[in-house]
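## Example record

The block below lists the input lines for one assembly entry, exactly as stored, with component labels intact.
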Amino acid sequence: MSAPVKLLYFAWLKQKTGCAEEEVQPPAEVATVAELLSWLEGRGGGFAEALADRAAIRVAVNQEYARPGDPVKPGDEVALFPPVTGG
Amino acid sequence: MTVRVQREDFDLGAELTALTAGNRRVGGLTSFVGLVRDMAETPDLAAMTLEHYPGMTERMLERIEAEAQARWPLEASLIVHRYGRMEPGEQIVLVACASPHREAAFEACHFLIDWLKTKAPFWKVEESHSGGTNWVEARSSDDAAAARWHRDDDAAE
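Predicted structure tokens for the full assembly:
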């Protein structure tokens, strides 16, 4: 079994999914950010609701901003969050 | 060349004094302080809470600061960003830049706060006196402000 992917959820994504942090084992065909989001959305419930509007979601892989086509592999830390509002 | 992410408040005067202490090459020191304001989307604002992504926050702030150092001749720079619950009037963020020249100090300070607002992973949630909460939405005007500083070789992209 390969290393899990660590998922982090922030702001309203944490509220809607009801999850701050988890480790998952996506199927082997999930190789990109976009594929990971679709797989998570497929869990239904709060995940489907949270992931419905992809334009409202930013993703970081290993603490670097990532695009939908960027790779995700076992052992990565993937964070899902809305556009930032600090400052 | 310092970045701090902390829950506690900061002493503006002490921070600025310490930043340039003993450095005779500094001719100009600029600072920007962001405050919690009471004219937010939530009527009857009681407080706001800043959530952040520990690890990535420091990484992004350090990168933004390094970019400012690369662009302007800075003798010193400082970013202090708070997280946690804050009430209207409280200080949220401090950006300060010291340079031999005022123009560089002004521009670098402006650059840092504009980029920080669009890159650093912080999120504000407002709470009203009646107990309601509202996640603040990102503003396109902040993206436009940051885009002013864009260059093709942006390391902070």
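Chain B touches chain A through 27 residues (CB under 8 Å). The CA atoms of residues 70 and 134 of chain B lie 38 Å apart.
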